[in-house]
Design goal:
Layout: E1 5-9, E2 30-31, E3 34-35, H1 36-46, E4 51-56, H2 61-66, H3 71-79, H4 83-94, E5 97-102, H5 109-114, H6 117-120, E6 125-128, E7 132-135, H7 140-151, E8 154-160, E9 170-176, E10 181-189, E11 200-208, H8 211-217, H9 229-239, E12 242-246, E13 250-253, H10 257-269, H11 275-286
Parallel strand pairs: 1-4, 1-6, 4-5, 8-12
Antiparallel strand pairs: 2-3, 6-11, 7-13, 8-11, 9-10, 9-11, 10-12
């Protein structure tokens, strides 16, 4: 079965970016001239996703507004003859079918995914976290979907990270079965460095089978008193094969201030209209 639906959990408070996120969602922070979440939606669409569910919380109406039609703005741009800007704004509302559900309590990522149960039904689906931006010509999610099509099981996006940082991630033990494909045998949520089974971290892209919902419904709270998606996937791996894809591409952790700054620089240097001038500026500042 082809994966056509994706879930975007966006109910978090974004406390690492306060005060900027006091009244605006972290997912709407601008990376050059687009909010973070739009980059991830575009990745999903480029990967073949046709329907997206945002799992939201209080104060997230800006996300809904961004992906809706803005009649006043479009009329203004039309009257001013700003056809290019009009086209870009209108395309946002037309790129994919988007739905919304509220996560009423902040009970963890696993609970956020469980909120999508009725929307997904009995289908495999993708999960994308809005603060992980992966820059690659072949979309990161498409790479996972190709593994899913070949292997027929859930797939996790994997990235090798320095061992001193492994405690910030879910981490896997896995057997390599292809050039960049692994069979996951174990996983640990945010392990201490000396307890980590490998240097391969799970990052914010998943393809999951619907069996995960039954597991999440009975999942006990894990680290931090939250329902951990990693714990549920570990249980799933005892029943079904779970795979990992060591994806190709440069990942930016935009949930971290330094990562956000790096992403801004890297993305700016790729923009033809000002990359040369921006590079000159950077060189002058670092001289």
């Amino acid at each position: 079965m082809k994966v056509k639906k994706a879930v975007f959990p966006v109910a978090g408070l974004g406390t690492r970016f306060l005060p900027a996120t006091k009244s605006s969602p972290k997912e709407m922070l601008p990376l050059i001239d687009k909010p973070l979440v739009q980059y991830v939606v575009e990745e999903a669409v480029a990967s073949g996703i046709e329907q997206i569910l945002f799992v939201t919380g209080r104060g997230k109406h800006n996300i809904e507004d961004h992906f809706d039609i803005s009649f006043e703005l479009e009329a203004h741009l039309y009257d001013k003859g700003k056809d290019r800007e009009l086209s870009r704004v209108h395309e946002i509302a037309e790129m994919v079918n988007i739905f919304y559900v509220r996560q009423r309590q902040a009970l963890g990522l696993g609970h956020a995914i469980l909120c999508a149960k009725d929307f997904i039904g009995n289908e495999p689906f993708a999960v994308l976290l809005g603060d992980d931006i992966v820059d690659n010509e072949r979309p990161c999610l498409r790479q996972l979907l190709d593994v899913f099509d070949q292997q027929g099981g859930s797939v996790l996006a994997l990235e090798k990270v320095p061992m001193e940082n492994i405690s910030s991630y879910g981490c896997v033990a896995a057997d390599q079965i292809g050039e960049r494909t692994f069979r996951v045998t174990d996983m640990v949520e945010k392990p201490a460095r000396d307890e980590a089974p490998s240097d391969m971290a799970i990052i914010g892209r998943y393809v999951l089978t619907p069996r995960i919902f039954e597991i999440l419904q009975n999942q006990a709270a894990g680290k931090g008193g939250e329902i951990q998606l990693t714990d549920a996937i570990l249980t799933l791996s005892k029943e079904e094969k779970v795979f990992g894809c060591l994806f190709e591409g440069l990942r930016h952790d935009c949930g971290d201030k330094l990562g956000f700054l790096k992403a801004t620089v890297d993305m700016a240097l790729k923009r033809k209209e000002f990359s040369a001038e921006f590079e000159t500026y950077l060189r002058q500042r670092l001289a």
